[in-house]
Write a structure and sequence with these properties.
The chain has 276 residues and is an alpha/beta fold. The chain contains 11 helices and 9 strands. The protein has a 7-stranded mixed beta sheet with strand order 5-4-3-6-7-9-8, with helices on both faces. The structure holds glutamine.
C-alpha cells in the first residue's frame, strides 16, 4: 500500500498515486478542497496529518473497488451536482435520456411523478429545467428520500418527496407524466457482482426476480394515475425493450415506442394513455 505522509506535496503524491491519475486528482481535490486548476498551481502544497490520513483511506477504498461517486459523495447528472450515498443508486448518463423525453412531453404546469427516485436526480433535473412543473418523487426507502430531499434543497427544486411502495400511498392522485428508473436487473445477474454495482443498493438494482416485476407493476397501474394523453416513460435493461413495449401495449397504452441511449441501446420505453 502507498504510504501518504503529512508533509508530502501534492506533486509527490500524484507521482506515486496507486489509482488512476484523474481519480487521484479528484480525491486530492476532495481532501484539500482545491479545484482542479488550484491543484496544478499549488503542486508544492503539503498535506497536513489529517489530510494525509483521509487521503490514504480514500486511496485504499478506491483500490478495493468502491465507486468514485461514493468516495466523493457526489455525482453530476444533467448538469447538476447530486449528493449520493450507498443508500442510492449512482445517477448514470444513460438516464439523462429519460429526462430529455420527459421534458419534451411535459405540459405547462404539468404534474410529474418519479417512481423510485433514489437520489432524486430525475425528478430534480426535471423540476430544475421546468420550474412551472409540479413534481412528486416517491421511494420506498426512507434513507433514499433523505438524500432526495437534500438534493432538492441543494438545487432549490420544488419537489414533493413521498414515501410509498410503488402506488400504495398515492390514493387517487393524478399526474400528466409518470417516469421511472426502477430496479430491473435479473436476480443473480453476474453484473451485480462486478464493478460499481457491488457497492450500490441491491434493492435499487434488482427486483430479485425476472427483472421485469417492477416494470410490470408500474405498467399495470400507471394509467389509473395519468390524465388523458399522459405519458408513462420507463428506463429498462439493454435486452428488455421488446418485453416492456409488450407490457405497455397489454395495458392499453398507445404510441408505444423505445428510444436509444448514447450507446445506441434501447434504454427507455414509453406509451401514451389512450382515452377510454
Ligand atoms: N443502469 C443500471 C446498470 O445496469 C441499473 C439501473 C437500474 O436497475 N435501474 O448499471
Amino acid at each position: 500500500m502507498t504510504v501518504i505522509l503529512a508533509g508530502d506535496t501534492i506533486a509527490a503524491i500524484l507521482r506515486r498515486a496507486p489509482v488512476e491519475q484523474l481519480e487521484a486528482r479528484m480525491l486530492i481535490g476532495h481532501v484539500t478542497q482545491l479545484s482542479r486548476v488550484q491543484l496544478i498551481t499549488n503542486a508544492e502544497r503539503v498535506l497536513n496529518a489529517a489530510e494525509a490520513q483521509q487521503l490514504a483511506t480514500l486511496f485504499a477504498r478506491r483500490m478495493a473497488g468502491e465507486p468514485m461517486a461514493y468516495l466523493l459523495g457526489e455525482r453530476e447528472f444533467y448538469g447538476l451536482s447530486f449528493q449520493v450515498s450507498p443508500a442510492v443508486l449512482i445517477p448514470r448518463p444513460d438516464t439523462e435520456l429519460l429526462v430529455e423525453l420527459a421534458l419534451q412531453r411535459l405540459p405547462q404546469q404539468g404534474r410529474v411523478l418519479d417512481m423510485g427516485t433514489g437520489s432524486g436526480a430525475i425528478a430534480i433535473a426535471i423540476a430544475h429545467a421546468r420550474p412551472d412543473a409540479v413534481v412528486t418523487a416517491l421511494d420506498v426507502s426512507e434513507a433514499a428520500l433523505a438524500v432526495a430531499s437534500a438534493n432538492a434543497h441543494r438545487h432549490k427544486a420544488r419537489v414533493e418527496c413521498l414515501r410509498s411502495d410503488w402506488f400504495a400511498a398515492l390514493d387517487g392522485r393524478q399526474f400528466d407524466l409518470i417516469v421511472s428508473n426502477p430496479p430491473y436487473i435479473v436476480a443473480g445477474d453476474r453484473h451485480l457482482s462486478e464493478g460499481d454495482l457491488r457497492f450500490e443498493p441491491i434493492d435499487a438494482l434488482s427486483d430479485h426476480a425476472d427483472g421485469l416485476s417492477a416494470l410490470r407493476i408500474i405498467s399495470e397501474h400507471a394509467a389509473d394515475h395519468l390524465s388523458d394523453d399522459g405519458w408513462l416513460l420507463m428506463e429498462h435493461g439493454y435486452d428488455q425493450a421488446a418485453a416492456v413495449r409488450g407490457l405497455l401495449a397489454e395495458n392499453g397504452f398507445g404510441e408505444v415506442q423505445s428510444w436509444r441511449d448514447l450507446a445506441q441501446i434501447e434504454r427507455v420505453s414509453g406509451g401514451k394513455k389512450s382515452r377510454a
